[in-house]
Amino acid sequence: MTAEPSDAERYPTLTDAGAAMLRRMREHPAAPIFRNTSGNRLLGPEVDELSRYERDLADARFEWAPSRQPEWLMASVAKTFAQVPYYRAQAMPESFTDIAPVDRGALAADIARFVPDTVSLDRLINFRTTGTTGHPLVLPSHPVVAARYLAHHKRALNRFGIELSNRGGQMGVMLLGMQRRCFTYVSVTPTMGESGLAKINLHPDDWRDPSDRARYIDQMQPEVIAGDPISFAALLELPVAHRPRALLSVSMALSQGLRRSLAERFDCAVLDLYSMNEAGPLAVYDDAAGGHVLLQPGMYIEILDPNGKTLPPGLTGEITLTGGFNFCLPLLRYRTGDHGALAMHGDCPMIVGLQGRRPVRFLTAAGQWINNIDLTHALAVLPLSRYQIHQATHGDVTLALPQSEIAQANEAETRLQAALGGRPITVVALDTEDKVRQYTSDMPGGDTP
Hints:
The chain has helices at 7-10, 16-27, 44-59, 73-83, 85-88, 104-109, 143-159, 212-220, 229-236, 256-266, 372-379, 409-419; strands spanning 125-129, 137-141, 171-177, 185-189, 195-201, 224-227, 246-249, 269-276, 280-286, 291-294, 299-304, 317-323, 331-345, 348-355, 361-363, 369-371, 388-391, 397-401, 425-429, 439-441. By secondary structure, it is α/β, with parallel strands linked by helices. The strands form four sheets. It has a twelve-stranded mixed β-sheet, with helices on both faces. A four-stranded mixed β-sheet has the order 19-18-17-20, covered by helices on one side. The protein has a two-stranded antiparallel ribbon with strand order 1-2. The longest helix is centred in the middle third of the chain and has 17 residues, at 143-159.
């Protein structure tokens, strides 16, 4: 049986000040029950490399546009075909668009075949992601890859004039969860003066006293709080006095109503990031741009139709990724299951009309099909953390809301009825605290190809 790693193994560059920060986060009288352990596992030279990576990324520019491939693309393809077993078994394509796209199912079937031969196994990190649809995945990563997330988050923050400090002895980032079971831990960030990092679960069961939740946040005073709409909706219910410099919403789409409520309550910037475990932070929503502005200059994005054909700028299709910063999993025409259109904002590409996962059509009372985006727009003004809309085979529509947000039911029902041409809506309580598949249909023709 493998021995539990020591702090020296979890934090190879840990100083006395960093160790004191860990103790403060773990042993504070209002601290939650930390159910897990983790660490940055970064070696000294890697910390220096990450600092350079962060500086380079801050000034990096995109070398491609929706109608123009980057010059580095085919060299990256050749490297992937040479080093990755899945592609080495195939002939090198004559052109980029000759490469058959892959999806989550292909990765789930045999993830090892997508890991380059050059990746050393002794420091490989594997983590499991289930998502809300599709296939469970075990994704390969590395301590350096995990640490690169921060550089892209800083790029997103810098876009809005927010520059984080290196606050040794203070908490830099607090990650929120709101689940019955949640991976919780503390760590320190070497590239930010060993400032504290804590992943906490706002579910009452993870606290000795539920009132400690607000007390711990107020005492730790994180510079940035990151979470998803579910955990942020829970945060709004707590008597938190602390005002972070920014809130980062990841993993799930953030409604305009909830974003506005968070901004008013905490008087800070609220960033809606488009991010996924397979690729990291991809884009951040910018009101001025009118879309999600891309964050990774080393990621090339296409928009594909259902047959795998590349669509021109402005047309909506499936977001498909090539490249990225995870050298353990170089993506090559990876179909994400998310949809949107490509456009430019200045010299930066962006995604317009982002819709997570496959679109679903709903049949109105007049017998007309509408896209689920119309329902998203109908509910956008409401501060909902999550919801589920389902259409049965006979056309009846059910809206499931969290029990804590049932007060929004009447207005949500009215707005959905208007979007669906007067079709009756049944509102029920959402029976899970975890993420849900937002739109589903049993109606023939409801699930789009």
